[in-house]
UniProtKB/TrEMBL annotation:
Keywords: Cytoplasm, Disulfide bond, FAD, Flavoprotein, NAD, Oxidoreductase, Redox-active center. Residues 353-461 form the Pyridine nucleotide-disulphide oxidoreductase dimerisation domain. GO terms for molecular function: dihydrolipoyl dehydrogenase (NADH) activity. It is an enzyme of class 1 (oxidoreductase). It is found in: Cytoplasm. It catalyses: N(6)-[(R)-dihydrolipoyl]-L-lysyl-[protein] + NAD(+) = N(6)-[(R)-lipoyl]-L-lysyl-[protein] + NADH + H(+). Residues 5-334 form the FAD/NAD(P)-binding domain. This is Dihydrolipoyl dehydrogenase.
């Protein structure tokens, strides 16, 4: 006999737990299934983002940044420190404590909202039944008037570089090194590769990033990517473009990586190899025969613009569906679906989802790049402003980078905001808000920004669109 729920959510990551909590807030009886276990072997809610992704990586980025600044920037402030050391075990312990705090926080929210958690693997059966194989080996069946699939994603494993969780690792392994590797290679110059490569570089590792594509950060604005690449080079990150890896062999406690570039085949010996070539929808074993839910050729669950699968009462959100694999995109989809189930309006605008890379300098953007606008034949005008002319950035010792505003040449509506520099993970939301309200560059230029702040770079870039920036020659 199946227990009946208004909503059964498969997955308690960003998309799933938001869907569960919002549905419960709206008066529905909700169950949420999650298979993940923490480092202590106990259930840990929050998905990849919270346990082994966004949150723990930011903890390590902050720790490593403090250590790097202590050695390289504090002297400019007149602060001298001798024989600074990094205790890696303490740094990892701090990260684990933060993760446990937040996974426990979600468990408390589930309890407060009367959500019933099930710990194990959920599989959708025909008729909106979800079979849960729990960690103790027992099975239960849940019947949902609605089922929300939020199964998330997994790291992509390369056939010639299988994870052994010691020498060849994914992002999970790279968050738990017990010591700083002398030499670290990273396959993939995307978000994960750049962030975790930066962590271990700051702590003293020699880091080589091997990127198969010929251009760096092709999804970002080209000018932003060039500026970021220049700063990373100054920091000692060795980024090799057009480097296609074909083999990774473990020999005598080393990983020998074979790759080919424009000069031919080469071999690189390192102590650890991080494979960060992207993620894939975690849809394996998720659907029983006869559910009617379809998968794309990439293994993603097919949905319409409202995250509905086409099967009555079955929805899917987050990394396992189309769109950017970003936690905050999953947040919004989970909430939107819960509200749609309740008969309320629910919508996610994928055109205004912000992207952030938390390196030094940070990289962030929303909307279209100049490359995209040119390719689509959209007339536009651009205004940019450097952080080197922003008093707050200079006072912080962080003058690298700039802000660029792209607006339609005829309507002045903002089409994109692209940033590289200090604190841009926060500043990008000026563009998100302006675009959601169909704002123009002139709107942004006429809004008073406090002085001295980093946000003035956005203000001046917006003014520069119409060649009226006060603080630079237009």
């Amino acid at each position: 006999m199946s227990e009946q729920f208004d909503v059964v959510v498969i997955g308690a990551g960003p998309a799933g737990y938001h869907a569960a909590i919002r549905a419960a807030q709206l008066g529905m009886k909700v169950a949420c299934i999650d298979a993940a276990l923490g480092k202590d072997g106990k259930p840990a809610l929050g998905g990849t983002c919270l346990r082994v992704g966004c949150v723990p990586s930011k903890a390590l980025l902050d720790s490593s940044r403090q250590y790097y600044n202590l050695q390289h920037l504090f002297g400019d402030h007149g602060i001298s420190v001798k024989d600074a050391k990094m205790d890696v075990a303490t740094m990892i312990g701090r990260k684990d404590k933060i993760v446990k705090q937040f996974t426990g926080g979600i468990a408390m929210l589930f309890k407060a909202n009367k959500i019933t958690p099930y710990y194990g693997f959920g599989q959708l059966q025909p008729g909106n039944i979800v079979k849960v194989k729990q960690h103790d080996g027992s099975e239960v069946e849940l019947k949902g008037t609605n089922v929300v699939i939020a199964a998330g994603s997994d790291s992509i494993e390369l056939p010639f570089a299988k994870f052994d969780n010691e020498y060849i690792v994914d992002n999970v392994g790279a968050l738990d090194f017990t010591s700083v590797p002398k030499r670290l290679a990273v396959i993939g110059a995307g978000v994960i590769g750049l962030e975790l490569g930066s962590v271990w570089k700051r702590l003293g590792a020699e880091v080589t990033i091997l990127e198969a594509l010929p251009e760096f950060l092709g999804a970002a604005d080209a000018e932003v990517a060039r500026t970021a690449a220049k700063e990373f080079k100054k920091q000692g990150l060795d980024i090799k473009l057009g480097a296609k890896v074909s083999k990774a062999e473990i020999k005598k406690k080393e990983v020998h990586v074979t790759y080919a570039d424009g000069e031919g085949e080469k071999t690189l010996a390192v102590d650890r190899l991080l494979v960060a070539v992207g993620r894939k929808a975690a849809s394996k074993g998720l659907l029983a025969e006869g559910t009617g839910v379809k998968l794309s050729d990439r293994g993603q669950i097919e949905v319409d613009e409202h995250c509905h699968t086409g099967v009555d009462g079955v929805w899917a959100v987050g990394d396992c569906v189309r769109g950017p694999m970003l936690a905050h995109k999953g947040f919004e989809e989970g909430i939107a679906v819960a509200e749609l189930i309740a008969g309320l309006p629910g919508h996610v605008n994928l055109d205004t989802v912000p992207w952030v890379i938390y390196t030094e300098p940070e990289i962030a953007w929303v909307g279209k790049t100049e490359q995209q606008l040119k390719a689509e034949g959209i007339p536009y005008k651009a205004g940019s402003f450097p952080f080197a002319a922003i008093a707050r950035a200079v006072a912080m010792g962080e003058p690298a980078g700039f802000v660029k505003v792209l607006a339609h040449a005829e309507t002045d509506r903002i089409l994109g905001l692209h940033l590289v520099g200090v604190g841009v993970s926060e500043l990008v939301h000026e563009g998100v808000i302006a675009m959601e309200f169909n704002g123009s560059a002139d709107d942004l230029a006429r809004i008073c920004h406090a002085h001295p702040t980093l946000s003035e770079a956005v203000h001046d870039a917006a003014m520069a669109v119409s060649k009226r920036s006060i603080h630079k020659v237009n």
